[in-house]
């Protein structure tokens, strides 16, 4: 009788209509596939049941988080090789319904059902790390607070392991030349990451033209890195707002340790509840992804209202590629179920349009896409180096969620599936004097 790996390899190829780019190692110890390829480890039949009940990305993610699937070798290589078979198929290159019209594919699915065993009749329970009560993009103050708590209240000690001493959870700004380097090149996650995050914060401060005595609102202030940097190095007074209690506690301690309590206030507050404008500048770094498509204009209008005439907004936000049919878009299953519940991504053009509809004049858009691939690889290196500690602080499943999430996103940025952009906008006063220099990009560094 054919071993499990050979059967799996044959059946998967029949379903996909092409050869698998990875080698399979099955639960019986057998292997099949290209000899030099990275190895996808199918540890048990439950992995097949998860894929059969939820074909595509979410089924694969559930199997990974539960430990039913693993990788022996370079995780990035497996994700990169599998990207075409997962992402592009789910985007319509060859959907499941079309696949199953092929008699060979239908026969292969029947073979997978037999190989999965009798228990295939019942769907495996999702791993406990999965969100069981979908928020469905309501984006009320209550649901947004729940979503933020799920992602950010994992534990400050865990985030310190991943992010390093800077505690900056957004794309870093790497020195000239680094983004063009080989994506597999080693990144100094201890020193270079810190320098790149410092440079990113300073880039934002320079784009905002911060000056001593000004008021800055930092929306989604995280663990206080931007607030501390702006107050300490640029002399501004900062109000930082977050929905995460754990972030606020951490940020307030950092502010106190830096001796900046007279210049920095950290609040647990929704952006819709801020009423103490005007501010001279607003930074929103990695926060707008949580706002939601239906609420984005309201978000932009609120920030416009809080800015003084001539004030600047720096909106640092992840984007996605546009689709021909935008009505068919939904955030991918794994991210929504395990990482960013209720998160929504938009093309950068949509973001610019909404900011302008709110009254802003958009003056500069800078893509940092390659920078995020490098940043994510540095975070993965941090997680790998402290894996046992990360598991002890959370759970094996939660640590696997973060490893898959960061590695897959790194591949997504490198393959131009995802982007990240800094949009600089001005609340231009009546009369049109924006206050911007004629040659604005003196901040390029």
Keywords:
445 residues; alpha/beta; Rossmann fold; 2 domains; four-stranded mixed sheet; 11 strands; 44% helix
Describe this structure in words.
With 445 residues, the chain is of the alpha/beta class. The chain has 2 domains: 4-121, no CATH class; 141-443, Rossmann fold, CATH 3.40.50. The protein has 17 helices and 11 strands. It has helices spanning 4-16, 45-53, 57-66, 75-90, 96-99, 103-116, 141-152, 156-163, 192-207, 225-234, 245-257, 296-306, 333-339, 348-357, 369-385, 387-393, 396-414, and strands at 23-25, 31-32, 39-42, 69-72, 215-219, 237-242, 264-268, 279-285, 307-320, 361-367, 418-426. The strands form 2 sheets. A 7-stranded mixed beta sheet has the order 7-6-5-8-9-11-10. Strands 2-1-3-4 form a 4-stranded mixed beta sheet. Residues 178-191 have low confidence and may be disordered. Keywords: Lipid metabolism, Methyltransferase, S-adenosyl-L-methionine, Transferase. Pfam families: CMAS. Residues 158-429 form the Polyketide synthase-like methyltransferase domain.
């Amino acid at each position: 009788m054919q071993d499990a790996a050979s059967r799996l390899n044959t059946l998967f190829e029949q379903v996909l209509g092409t050869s698998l780019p990875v080698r399979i190692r099955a639960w019986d110890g057998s292997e099949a596939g290209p000899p030099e390829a990275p190895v996808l480890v199918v540890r048990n039949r439950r992995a097949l049941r998860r894929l059969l009940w939820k074909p595509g990305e979410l089924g694969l993610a559930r199997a990974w988080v539960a430990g039913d699937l693993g990788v022996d070798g370079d995780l990035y290589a497996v994700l990169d090789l599998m990207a075409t078979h997962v992402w592009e198929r789910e985007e319509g290159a060859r959907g499941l319904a079309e696949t199953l019209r092929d008699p060979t594919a239908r026969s292969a699915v029947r073979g997978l059902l037999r190989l999965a065993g009798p228990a295939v009749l019942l769907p495996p329970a999702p791993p406990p790390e999965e969100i069981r009560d979908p928020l469905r993009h309501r984006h009320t103050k209550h649901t947004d607070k729940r979503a933020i708590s799920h992602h950010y209240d994992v534990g400050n000690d865990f985030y310190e392991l991943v992010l390093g001493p800077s505690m900056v959870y957004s794309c870093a700004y790497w020195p000239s030349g680094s983004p063009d380097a080989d994506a597999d090149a080693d990144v100094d996650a201890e020193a270079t990451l810190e320098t790149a995050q410092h440079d990113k914060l300073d880039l934002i401060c320079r784009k905002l033209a911060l000056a001593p005595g000004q008021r800055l609102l930092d929306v989604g202030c995280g663990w206080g890195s931007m607030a501390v940097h702006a107050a300490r190095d640029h002399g501004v007074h900062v109000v930082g707002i977050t929905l995460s209690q754990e972030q606020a506690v951490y940020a307030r301690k950092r502010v106190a340790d830096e001796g900046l309590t007279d210049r920095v206030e950290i609040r647990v507050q929704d952006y819709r509840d801020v009423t103490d404008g005007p501010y001279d500048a607003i930074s929103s770094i990695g926060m707008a992804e949580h706002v939601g498509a239906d609420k984005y204009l309201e978000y932009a209008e609120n920030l416009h209202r809080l800015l003084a005439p001539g004030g600047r907004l720096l909106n640092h936000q992840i984007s996605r590629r546009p689709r021909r049919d935008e009505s068919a878009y939904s955030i991918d299953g794994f991210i929504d179920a395990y990482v960013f519940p209720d998160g929504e991504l938009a093309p950068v053009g949509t973001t610019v349009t909404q900011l302008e509809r709110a009254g802003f004049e958009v003056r500069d858009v800078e893509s940092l896409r390659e920078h995020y691939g490098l940043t994510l690889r540095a975070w993965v290196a941090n997680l790998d180096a402290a894996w046992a500690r990360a598991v002890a602080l959370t759970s094996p499943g939660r640590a696997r969620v973060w490893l898959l999430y960061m590695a897959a996103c790194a591949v997504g940025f490198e393959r131009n599936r995802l982007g990240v952009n800094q949009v600089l906008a001005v609340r231009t006063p009546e009369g049109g004097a924006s206050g911007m220099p004629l040659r604005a990009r003196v901040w390029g560094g």
